[in-house]
Specification:
By secondary structure, the protein is of the alpha/beta class. It has three domains: 107 residues, CBS-domain, CATH 3.10.580; 227 residues, Aspartate Aminotransferase, domain 2; 135 residues, Aspartate Aminotransferase, domain 1 (Alpha-Beta Complex). It has 17 helices and 20 strands. It has a seven-stranded mixed sheet, with helices on both faces. It has a four-stranded antiparallel sheet with strand order 16-18-20-19. α5 packs antiparallel against α12, α7 crosses α8 and α13 runs parallel beside α17. The chain is elongated, with a radius of gyration of 26 Å. The mean pLDDT is 94. Bound molecules: pyridoxal-5'-phosphate. The site of pyridoxal-5'-phosphate has 14 residues, from α7 and α8. Pyridoxal-5'-phosphate (PLP) binds next to α7 and α8.
Length: 491
C-alpha cells in the first residue's frame, strides 16, 4: 500500500533551508525534487546537505544545485519484492515512480534492515531443556527445572534462597508483601525507573514516594532518600538502572539507622556488582526480571533472592495462593499465584549456563561503543563508578543538545532512518497519573536526564560491526548537526 509522501515532495524553487525543514521533521529522511508536472528531478538526503555546506553553500541556495540526479528509482509496475531488491546500504531511500516518472511511493532501507535494541539469545540448551519438559509431560510449575533454575541462580547471586516468580513485577510485589508492606505505608522509589517499580508498591496498598537520582550514576541519590523518610516509611527500593548498581553503602546505613527494609530492584542488573558483591544480596530481598529483553530471559519470569529464611517461607506461601505447606487447602494468607512454569525455568537454566559468557561479551561491546563515542561533543557516556561493575543491560547515553547540536528525539529519528532502533529513557514517575500526589518537591536531575537519555542496541548477540555502524551513525549525526547549526547562526 502506498504511503503519503506528499510532505517529502518539493518543487525546483526549494532552498536548502526548505529541505532541512522537511528532514528535521524526521519523516523518511529524504526529499524528492519534482518539476511543474510532478516529474522527479532528483533527491536530497542529509548527506547531500552536508556536502553542500562543506562546499560553502548557503542555506538560501537552490536545493536543485546539490541534489542527486542519477538516483536509483523503483517503479509502481514492479512488485514490492522487485523494488526492495534495488535497495542497498548506499541506496537507502528508493522513490517509486509511476509511468510518467512521478514519485508515488517510497521504500526505505530502514524498512528492511532493523538493528533491534535487544534480542534474546537462545542458542544454548534452551531448546533441549524445553523439549525435555514436553517429552516428559512436566510443563506446569511442578517440575525439576524450577528447582534447578532457583538453585543455579541462588548460587550465582550468593544468597541462601532464590524463589522464582511469574515475572519481575510479581517478584517485587511478593517481596514487599512478604515484608509486610501494606496500606498506609510508604516506600521510597527513584523518580527515574520503569513504572513497575512503583506499581508493585501501589499493589500493596502502599504509596510510592519518589527520590531524585544522582547525576553521575542515574540511580537513587542517598541524601534524597534520607530527606523523604517519614514515620510511615517502611522500605527503600533502590533500582540498579540500566545495569548500574546504586551506591548501596549509604543506603544500607540509612536503612539500618532508620529501621527500614531494602528491596533491590535488580530487573536490569543481573550480574552487576557493588564493591565485589552481586546485586540481589545487598538488601532484605533482591528482585529480578526475565522478560525477553533483559540480561537473561525466560520469556516472562522473575526471581526473588534473600538470606532471610522466614521471609523466604512467607513468600513461598504467598506465591502459592497463601496455602499452608502442611495442611492441604488451608489458607494462611489471601495469597497469589505467582509461580513460574517448568517450561520457563527450563529456558532460565539454559540461560544461566551462559550468563558469564553474555556478560563478558557485553564488556567487549561496551568498550567498542566507548571507543566510538568518548569525546563526541555533547554525548555523555554511561556511568562507570569505580566501586561498581555495571553490566550495561542497555548501553545508554545522555545527549546534551547545547553541545551536540541535536536533541535526543532527532538523534533517535536519524538512527531509525538508518535502521537502528533505540529506546528513550523512562519519563519521570512523579508527574504520571497513578502516582501524582500533592507534594511539590522537585526532581531536577531526573527532569534533566529523562528527556536526554537514549539506549542503544545492546543484545547478547549484537555483532561488533553492528556496534561500529551505530557508533559511526551517531558521530555523523552530531557532526552534521553542528555543521548545520554553524550555518544557521552564521550572518
Ligand atoms: C523490567 C523491569 C521490571 C518489571 O519486570 P517484568 O518482568 O517486566 O514484570 C521492574 N523494574 C524494572 C526497573 C524493570 O526494568
Amino acid at each position: 500500500m502506498a504511503r503519503d509522501i506528499s510532505a517529502n515532495l518539493l518543487d525546483m524553487t526549494a532552498t536548502l533551508r526548505d529541505v532541512l525543514t522537511v528532514l528535521n521533521r524526521g519523516v523518511f529522511g529524504v526529499v524528492f525534487l519534482v518539476d511543474d508536472d510532478g516529474v522527479m528531478q532528483g533527491l536530497l538526503t542529509d548527506g547531500d546537505i552536508r556536502r553542500a555546506l562543506l562546499q560553502k553553500a548557503s542555506l538560501s541556495d537552490a536545493a536543485g544545485r546539490f541534489m542527486t540526479r542519477d538516483f536509483v528509482a523503483g517503479s509502481d509496475a514492479f512488485s514490492r519484492q522487485e523494488n526492495i531488491r534495488l535497495l542497498t546500504e548506499h541506496v537507502r531511500h528508493l522513490p517509486i515512480l509511476d509511468g510518467q516518472g512521478r514519485p508515488v511511493d517510497m521504500i526505505s532501507w530502514a524498512e528492511i534492515w532493523r538493528l533491534p535494541v535487544m534480542e534474546p539469545s537462545l542458542g544454548g540448551n534452551e531448546l533441549k531443556y524445553v523439549t525435555d519438559c514436553i517429552v516428559s509431560n512436566w510443563i506446569s510449575s511442578q517440575g525439576e527445572y524450577v528447582s534447578r533454575f532457583e538453585e543455579i541462580f541462588r548460587e550465582y547471586v550468593s544468597t541462601d534462597y532464590a524463589l522464582s516468580t511469574s515475572n519481575g513485577t510479581t517478584a517485587l510485589h511478593l517481596a514487599l508483601a512478604g515484608l509486610g508492606v501494606g496500606p498506609g505505608d510508604q516506600v521510597i522509589v527513584p523518580d527515574l525507573t520503569f513504572g513497575a517499580s512503583a506499581n508493585a508498591v501501589v499493589h500493596c496498598g502502599a504509596n510510592p514516594v519518589f527520590a531524585d537520582v544522582d547525576r553521575t550514576t542515574w540511580t537513587i541519590e542517598p541524601s534524597a532518600v534520607e530527606a523523604k523518610i517519614t514515620e510511615r516509611t517502611k522500605a527503600i527500593m533502590p533500582v540498579h538502572l540500566y545495569g548500574q548498581p546504586c551506591d548501596m553503602a549509604p543506603i544500607r546505613e540509612i536503612a539500618k539507622r532508620r529501621g527500614l527494609f531494602i528491596v533491590e530492584d535488580c530487573a536490569e542488573a543481573l550480574g552487576a556488582e557493588y564493591k565485589e558483591q552481586k546485586v540481589g544480596r545487598l538488601g532484605d530481598a533482591g528482585c529480578f526480571s526475565f522478560f525477553a529483553n533483559k540480561v537473561i530471559t525466560t520469556g516472562e519470569g522473575g526471581m526473588v533472592t534473600t538470606d532471610d529464611r522466614a521471609l523466604y517461607e512467607k513468600m513461598a506461601c504467598l506465591r502459592d495462593h497463601g496455602m499452608s505447606k502442611d495442611k492441604r487447602y488451608w489458607h494462611i494468607y489471601a495469597g497469589f499465584n505467582y509461580r513460574m512454569t517448568n517450561l520457563q525455568a527450563a529456558i532460565g537454566l539454559a540461560q544461566m549456563e551462559r550468563v558469564e559468557d553474555f556478560l563478558t561479551y557485553r564488556r567487549t561491546v561496551v568498550e567498542r561503543y566507548n571507543e566510538h563515542l568518548s569525546g563526541v561533543a555533547g554525548i555523555i557516556l554511561p556511568p562507570a563508578a569505580t566501586w561498581a561493575k555495571n553490566v550495561h543491560w542497555l548501553y545508554s547515553i545522555v545527549i546534551d543538545e547545547r553541545r551536540s547540536g541535536v536533541d535526543r528525539d532527532n538523534m533517535a529519528a536519524g538512527l531509525s532512518d538508518r535502521g537502528i532502533e533505540t529506546r528513550p529513557f523512562f519519563y519521570p514517575l512523579h508527574g504520571q497519573p497513578p502516582y501524582s500526589s500533592d507534594e511539590t518537591d522537585r526532581y531536577p536531575v531526573t527532569d534533566w536526564l529523562a528527556p536526554r537519555g537514549l539506549s542503544l542496541p545492546t543484545g547478547n548477540d549484537i555483532r561488533l560491526d553492528e556496534v561500529d555502524r551505530v557508533g559511526m551513525a551517531i558521530k555523523r549525526i552530531v557532526s552534521d548537526a553542528r555543521l548545520i547549526r554553524r550555518h544557521m547562526t552564521a550572518p
